[in-house]
Design brief:
This protein is α/β, with parallel strands linked by helices and about 500 residues long. The chain has helices at about 5-35, 55-65, 85-95, 95-100, 170-185, 210-220, 275-290, 300-310, 315-320, 325-335, 340, 380-390, 415-430, 480-495, and strands at about 105-110, 110-115, 125-130, 155, 160, 195-200, 225-230, 235, 245-250, 255-265, 265-270, 345-355, 360, 365-375, 395-400, 435-440, 455, 460-465, 475-480. It is globular and about 85 Å long. The structure holds zinc ion.
Length: about 500
């Protein structure tokens, strides 16, 4: 005789069966997604376009001469020495005569350059290629001297050495080299190409890129897309991917510096009150650090992970293919390093503290500066509100050091701009994986955000893990062959416009 199963037992069995079926289904989905991850988007290869008439040694020499002109942006109250800026523009005029006679040349904001290369078809939207020729100062760091003086423009050991070799004179001259050679060949683009070279990017671009963008806007110019610095070919930098990864950045972070101010009555330190300005401020900063803005995989990071994931080995590949299930794990693994964490959240960085004048006098005021880099999707207003809640103390005054800048809208990685740039990247670096990415710094690009929805950030330069510190650091340099390859990239890009 069959005994009827007791209700609770039956329920348990059903739950067990369902969960086994569930786990099996999930495992099947995970497996299928892992195997099919990246289907339809393998990195295509194309013929490498090199300009036969260009001698890498001559390209290097012309770049080196440009590095000898110390176009240093100092910012602050002291006016920059503009003589090198004049000399640089004169150097460009002498070195690229076809560009200067064939294109319309305008000075904007004193020392920025806007060049208009009128295309054959006026019905096509123009495109903008930009760069900047100002550089940051080259200070000697204790224990790390420059191999060659930063403004000597030395060509040695297969490299062009000097401040600006990577950031960003190689982009400016690379674009001009390609244009000059194409003009000599009698080439004219279909669409109008605007070349915009800023002179103050390193101090915010307010007199350069901002005014160029305003002038274009006043003329009703609506570019299809714009290419600026801010992405590159990375080699050995993206964890888990052995192939070089060319990051064409489609988004960049916003910027906000907030000052936190605490006040108290002051007096002699021999009779302190229960709460002091220093103590209140210290607690506020500690609370803020303990409550960072949450991590998330936004649309740009999702697109990047979709591009690089298929290049990874198991189990990383399985994790990335199944972010619907393992998103938390991906966030943990990626967020483990400060550089990865910066891609996943609005970062909180206390940078300055100020309080007190004497060891036995209570400070009446204590101030902390905290710098935030905003993930696309976050807003300056939202971050300030987050700080207010995290600090949770109405006695702490919050004030922005200057108006923050919102992250510009992210560019569609399926759009025409990305596809065009990516095709030229693939043609120039057939061995690389091309991925859309997020720039954690800021560039001049944001000034153009109101002109076009398609802002791309990529410069034709390969960097390894040891090269990252050369940006704004000691021993900035570019390989001669690499620079020639970069010129080839711009040539390929222009040929398609
Ligand atoms: Zn730069």
């Amino acid at each position: 005789m069959k005994r009827p199963m007791k209700r609770p037992v039956k329920r348990l069995l059903i739950i067990a069966a369902l969960s086994i079926a569930g786990v099996a289904a999930v495992a099947a989905v995970v497996a299928v997604r892992t195997v099919t991850f990246g289907d339809g988007s393998p990195h295509e290869t194309g013929a490498v376009v090199v300009a036969p008439e260009m001698e890498p040694a001559e390209l290097a020499e012309r770049l080196a001469a440009a590095l000898r002109l110390a176009t240093v942006s100092t910012g602050g109250a002291v006016a920059a020495d503009l003589e090198p800026f004049d000399a640089f523009l004169a150097y460009l005029e002498a070195t690229y005569p076809a560009v200067h006679s064939g294109l319309r040349v305008e000075r904007v904001g004193g020392h920025s350059l806007l060049l208009t290369w009128v295309g054959d078809d006026a019905t096509l939207e123009p495109v903008v290629l930009t760069g900047h020729y100002d550089v940051v100062p080259a200070r000697s760091v204790a224990g790390a001297e420059w191999t060659h003086p930063p403004f000597a423009g030395v060509v040695a050991d297969g490299y062009v050495w000097g401040r600006g070799a990577m950031d960003d004179k190689s982009s400016v001259l690379g674009i001009l080299e390609a244009a000059e050679a194409l003009l000599a060949d009698g080439f004219n683009p279909q669409r109008t190409v605007l070349l915009a070279f800023g002179h103050d990017e390193e101090v915010g671009g307010r007199d350069g890129a901002r005014l160029v963008a305003e002038r274009l806007a006043a003329r009703g110019v609506a570019p299809a897309w714009l290419l600026d610095e801010g992405g590159m070919v990375t080699d050995g930098v993206v964890p888990g991917v052995t192939a070089p990864v060319a990051l064409v950045n489609v988004a960049e972070k916003g910027f906000l510096s907030l000052e936190l101010v605490a006040r108290s009555t002051g007096g002699h330190s021999s009779m302190p009150p229960r709460e002091t300005a220093v103590g209140l401020l210290g607690r506020a900063v500690a609370r803020l650090e303990a409550r960072p803005l949450p991590r998330r995989i936004g649309p740009t990071m999702a697109a990047m992970l979709d591009a690089i994931g298929p290049e990874m080995d198991l189990p990383a590949r399985a994790l990335l293919a199944n972010r619907w299930l393992f998103g938390w794990a991906v966030e943990r693994v990626f967020g483990a390093s400060p550089s990865g964490d910066a891609l996943l959240r609005t970062t909180t960085a206390p940078t300055m503290l100020r309080a007190g004048v004497k060891d036995n006098v209570l400070a009446t005021e204590a101030r902390a500066t905290v710098n935030f880099r905003l993930l696309p999707g976050d807003t300056v207003e939202g971050v300030i509100e987050h700080v207010r809640q995290a600090v949770d103390d109405p006695r702490i005054e919050l004030r922005p050091l200057r108006p923050g800048s919102e992250p510009p809208p992210a560019t569609d990685p399926d759009g025409e701009g990305f596809r065009t740039v990516a095709a030229a990247v693939r043609a120039t670096w057939p061995e690389a994986v091309v991925a859309p990415g997020l720039l954690v710094a800021t560039t001049d690009t944001r000034h153009y955000a109101s002109l076009t929805r398609q802002l791309l950030r990529f410069q034709p330069l390969t960097v390894g893990p040891e090269d990252v510190a050369r940006f704004h650091g000691v021993d900035e340099r570019i390989g001669i062959a690499e620079y020639a390859r970069g010129v080839g990239f711009y040539r390929r890009l222009l040929l398609g416009l």
